[in-house]
Amino acid sequence: MDNVDVSEILVSEKEIKAMVEHTASLINKDFGDEELIVVGILTGSYVFTADLVRHLTMPVIVDFMQVSSYQGQTSTGVLTIKKDLSFDITGKNVLIVEDIIDTGYTLKCLKEMLLKRNPKSLKICTAFDKPTRRTNTIEADYAGIVIPDKFIVGYGLDYDGEYRNLKDVCVVSMVGGN
Ligand code: IMP
Ligand code: MG
Questions:
Q1: Average model confidence (pLDDT) for the chain?
Q2: Taking the model in full, what pTM does it have?
Q3: Cα(84) to centroid of ligand 1, in Å?
Q4: Can 88 be counted among the known catalytic residues?
Q5: Which ligand neighbours the alpha carbon of 103 most closely?
Q6: Which whole-number Å values give the CA distances from 11 to 21, 130, 144, in the listed order?
Q7: Which residues line ligand 1 (CB under 6 A)?
């Protein structure tokens, strides 16, 4: 069985803190005093969502969704909702908060689905972005830190359910064998 090594820090706790504050300042500037419904995508974004909302200055409602997606034979694919929103977003400003955008597939499906509920606006914020992995044209309106094509953990991100509690973002590498 492979052992997992997570000792390589890619983004430090200090850099993450600066990213959160900068991202929040952009959102504050864009929305002013308008109410914002912040939708964290479980599970990975719970840490970023908690940090981000504490730097937002407008009236905020925090909600969470949990979805899973798989690319079927049709180009639209399928999105399964494991937990839906508790609030009606019709006519509201909505900000989706993700931990990381990889292929962009999950967000593409989610965005299409939420737009059908007729929000006033729908924007996407992600803590980390792997643009080189993208298979569609989805882009975040607020993309915290661009990272290379490596598998990362920490700050809410997991490998097989583990390491979400790390304060820094670390690179996963496999060591040893059998
Ligand atoms: P996408 O649909 O390919 O963009 O999938 C994005 C989701 O895959 C994220 O919300 C994460 O849950 C997961 N993911 C993608 N890259 C990583 C990574 O490097 N570490 C941990 N989870 C990842
Ligand atoms: Mg996720």
A1: 93
A2: 0.94
A3: 20
A4: no
A5: 1
A6: 15, 14, 11
A7: 44, 98-106, 151-153, 157
